[in-house]
Amino acid sequence: MSSAADNTVVFEDVNKTLGHRRVLVDVRLSLPSTQITAIVGESGSGKSTLLQHINALIRPDDGRVLVFGRPIDYDDAVALRRRVGYAVQSIALFPHLTVRNNVSLLARLENWPEERTETRIERLLSLMELDTGVLDRYPHELSGGQQQRVGLCRAMMLEPPLLLLDESFSGVDPITRQSIHEEFLRLQQEEPRTVVLVTHDMREAEILSDFLVVLLDGVVRQAAPTAEVIESPADEYVSRLVGDSPS
Amino acid sequence: MNGFLPKNIHGRSSKGTLCCLLILVLLAVGSCTSGDTRERIVVGSKPFAESYMLAEIFAQLLEAEGFQVDRRFNFGGTLVTYEALKRGEIDLYPEYTGTITQTILKQPALTEANAINEALVAEGLRILPSLGFNNSYAIAVPAELADELGLTKISDLRDHSELRFGISHEFQNREDGWPGLVAAYALDARVTGIEHALAYQAIRDGHVDVTDAYSTDGDIDRYGLVTLVDDRGYFPEYLAVPLIREDLAERAKSALELLADSLDDERMRSLNARAVVENEAFASIATDFLFDQGLMPERTVVQRNIWRNLVRNTAQHLKLTGIALLLACTVGLAVALLVFRSKPLSRGVIYVAGLLQTVPSIALLALMIPLFGIGEIPAIIALFLYSLLPIVRNTITALVTIDPTLRRVAVAMGLTPLQQIRHVTLPLALPNVLAGIRTAAVISIGTATLAAFIGAGGLGDPIVTGLTLNDPNLIMQGAIPAAILAILTELAFERLERRLVPPHMLSATV
């Protein structure tokens, strides 16, 4: 395990242009270790692009990104990605693999011993309140909520010190969503890790996050502990965004 | 629902591709050549009964001399066979002097064996002394009629202008055929054009009295005909000779020379009749002949029974299609994986593969000859080209329709490019890819029957021979196993798909 200080994510003056659009503008950020950071903003604000810089899916035009205390080595992105869990909104479970094989794919590629894999799967399943009966089913046989839980299990299989969630809790009914939130927070207590969560839902950000980044048109409008952002928004836009939240 | 799933499905998809390859490899393992160290001679033949007979006689004679003989019968025609000889893919085949001078050398003035050999020496070829018979055009009449009218030679026909002539279309139109004959013998005859195959029946049924024939045609005996002597020497000589490569072993040459003048027209005719009329196997007729001739100490020849042939032909067939399919899978998958991200490239590749598909199979096989010669290799290459389209097209289609999010997640999870292909891209494409391979396999098995025309063997061998001999039994010996093979392949792939593809992904493709 890396030491706590290693698990921060730092953006140093990152700029990114996609096509003719400047998606990220002079982003400077330092995300706290072993805490949950939420990146919020409207769609098109650059949230997902920001997130995908962390696991090297996207490379900055200039500036640099530091993960685990080091600038990303893009020639060895595979090694980085194995230590960074990733789950997306559409869940994207592999339809040709059973739940067991979806969750354990990375462990098999890492040549984990069978018992270790089994133990890990069982633990993840129980933390996410999933029945072991789902293991031999295919993704299309599961409910939306079950699929999301499986997606999270897959992302956390290798016990990554860093976890990226891209709208991973949307697309299910509010009750299911609430219980997944609870399970996720319990998991975070059991296995604390640095989590970066992208969401367009301010309420979800409030419930889950310790640290909040507000993004508008690729510019960071405010980055501070969540409570602080709510109490003293940096500007009109942040105030409006925070105010939208019904809580 | 759960109960339908196999119990041990752990890692099945990664094993899937391997399993698939394994089956293809098994398909590819065809007949193995024995580790025989005897000197090898390859005997060829043109595709008609008399040529098979002579080639089989050559082959058995050489076997009796201690050579290991490969039989490459069923070349598509004179020029294909001659080309094969020139390239050294065969060492000898039976040919006719008239064909050599007129069709091959295009020097019809040559008649003497020495002169022919002088012309052939530049190609490293030569002819051995004639076997004795002259398979030329002949004029045939029923034996009874000949007795009655005292007909023995062609000029006798002049006195009988009442006779009805049924002359084959080909003979009627050849310069060295009917027009020349009429001029040479000053015949005055009533002529009906008729299909050669029907002429004998027409004579038997009393519709015509005289027809053209080949002098050693087995049907002459069958229909009780006699041929009239060409007393003015009108017809060119078609003396049967072994046409050999100069570098053939001396021992083989001397053995073949023992056949000189061993077969006159009548004897050749009776051998042909045994094959064509009585459906006797060429091999046993050849053995009888060699034994009677004192050229074979005992009748030791292996009776080539139908099952042995069947097994050999099927194995060869599987070998041709299996290797071609394996190549097509390897190349097709690789190409598809390389180009599928680019739409114009994908289109280009599919277009080229489609173009190959439009070339008629027999033409594609013929095109292979100048490039790769004859035998297995050109056949495999042609089958390979044919199999490419369904595999490439299905694979590209499968790859482009994969949900891009799944591919992105595979990257984000930290799969290396190879792992992405093996664990995500290929398994997701598998149902379509397998369907493509299945189509290719079935097409190949059908097309491979044509490979016999360029000497590659397989189940096409009996079909081509059967077509030549007009022998439905022989045709069936190739056609039925080929059809069964195609059906079995279809079923095997169906099973394979069920094993490799999860049921919910299967239903979309069937």
Q: What is the typical, i.e. mean, pLDDT of chain A?
A: 89
Strand order of the largest sheet of chain A: 6-7-8-3-9-10
Helix and strand content put the structural class of chain B at: alpha/beta
Protein structure class of chain A: alpha/beta
Can you count the helices of chain A? 9
Poorly predicted runs of chain A:
none
Tell how many strands the DSSP assignment of chain A holds.
10
| Global geometry of chain B | elongated
Task: Report the count of strand segments of chain B.
Answer: 10
The biggest beta sheet of chain A is recorded as: 6 strands, mixed
How would a textbook summarize the main sheet of chain B? Answer: 5 strands, mixed
How would you describe this protein?
The complex is a heterodimer of chains A (about 250) and B (about 500). Chain A is about 35% helix and about 25% strand. With about 250 residues, chain A is an alpha/beta fold. A six-stranded mixed beta sheet of chain A has the order 6-7-8-3-9-10, with helices on both faces. Chain A has a four-stranded antiparallel beta sheet with strand order 2-1-4-5. In chain A, a hairpin with a 2-residue loop joins strand 9 and strand 10. In chain A, helix 3 packs parallel to helix 5. The longest helix of chain A is centred in the last third of the chain and has 17 residues. The termini of chain A are far apart. The model of chain A has no long low-confidence stretch (mean pLDDT about 90). With about 500 residues, chain B is an alpha/beta fold. Chain B contains 22 helices and ten strands. Chain B has a five-stranded mixed beta sheet with strand order 7-6-8-5-9. A three-stranded antiparallel beta sheet of chain B has the order 3-10-4. In chain B, helix 14 runs antiparallel to helix 19 and helix 14 crosses helix 21. The N terminus of chain B is likely disordered.
